[in-house]
Amino acid sequence: MHLRLLFLVFILLSCFVRADPHLELRVVTENFPPYNFEVKDKAEGVSSEVVLAVLEHADLDVDIEFLPWPRAYRTAQIEPNTLIYSIARIPERESMFVWLGTIAPYRTSFYKLKSNTDLHIHSFEDARAHKIGVSQEDAIKMYLENRGFKHLEVANADQFVVRMLIYGRMELIAYDEASLPYQVKEAGLDLDLIERVLRIEDLSEELYLAMHPKSDPLLIQRLKESLKAIKESGQYQKILSRYFPE
C-alpha cells in the first residue's frame, strides 16, 4: 500500500514539474557572425550550431530569438529560465549568471588604421591614453571601464564601432578577431585599411552559454549535461572545426 502511494505521488509530482510554466526556456542572442547570426529566420554560426545541438540532445524545442545585444543581455539578467549566448565570462559578470559551459573560442584585440603610422601600441598601458571605440553592454567595454580606461566611445551596434575607426572618429577599437572581417564586410568597408596592434589576453579565452541565476535548477542541469554530452561524443569539436580549422 505504501509503495503504491509513493508511486502515485511520484507520478503526480512528475506531471506537475512538466506542467510548471517556469520550466519554459527562452533563448536569446544577437547577430554576431561567425558565432551567431540569422539567415531566413534560421539560426546560423558556430555558437548557434552548438546551442541547437544542446537543445536537441535535451529534447527542448525552443526558438532562438535574435535581439540587439543590450536587449538580449538585459533580458537574461531579469527573466529566469532565459539562456543567453555567446557571452564572454569576466569577473564583473560572474555573479550575474549561471555559467553552463564554453561553446566557442574567443580572441579580442585592439585595432587601428594602417594609415595612422604615428600610433604605436606595444602594451595594454599604451592604449589607455587613446580614444577607443567599443560596443554598448559589451564585455570589452565593461572590462576596460573597470580598469580605468577613460576615453571610451560607446556605439549601440557593432558595425558603428568599425565605422568610427574607418572614418577617423576613434584612434583604436577593441574588437573580436573572428567577427571583425564580417562586420567590416557588412558595413561595405575595406578590411585592408585596418590592422591588429595588440591582443587583450584577459579577453581571449572562450564564449559561454549562461542563464539567469534564478532559473530552474532542473533545467540548468539538463542543459549542462547536454552540453557535456555533445562534447564527449565529438559533435562539438566537429562543429568548431568547420569554423576554426587548425
Protein described:
The protein contains 9 helices and 12 strands. The protein has helices at residues 2-19, 46-57, 69-78, 124-127, 139-145, 158-166, 180-186, 217-232, 235-243; strands at residues 26-29, 37-39, 42-44, 64-66, 82-88, 98-105, 108-113, 132-135, 152-155, 172-176, 194-199, 206-211. Helix 5 (139-145) links the parallel strand 8 (132-135) and strand 9 (152-155). With 246 residues, the protein is of the alpha/beta class. 37% of the residues lie in helices and 24% in strands. Helix 2 packs across helix 8, helix 2 packs antiparallel against helix 9 (235-243) and helix 6 (158-166) packs across helix 7. The protein has a 5-stranded mixed sheet with strand order 4-1-5-12-6, sandwiched between helices. The model is unreliable at 5-22 (pLDDT under 50).
Structural class: alpha/beta
Question: β content, as a range?
Answer: 15-25%
Separation, N- and C-terminal Cα atoms: 62 Å
Tell me roughly what share of residues is in helical segments: 25-40%
In total, the number of strands is 12
- Sketch the topology as an H/E string, one letter per element: HEEEHEHEEEHEHEHEHEEHH
Number of helices in the DSSP assignment:
9
Query: What is the strand arrangement across the widest sheet?
Result: 4-1-5-12-6
Write the layout of secondary structure elements.
Blueprint: H1 2-19, E1 26-29, E2 37-39, E3 42-44, H2 46-57, E4 64-66, H3 69-78, E5 82-88, E6 98-105, E7 108-113, H4 124-127, E8 132-135, H5 139-145, E9 152-155, H6 158-166, E10 172-176, H7 180-186, E11 194-199, E12 206-211, H8 217-232, H9 235-243
Parallel strand pairs: 1-4, 1-5, 8-9, 8-10
Antiparallel strand pairs: 2-3, 5-12, 6-12, 7-10, 7-11
Helix pairs in contact: 2-8, 2-9, 6-7
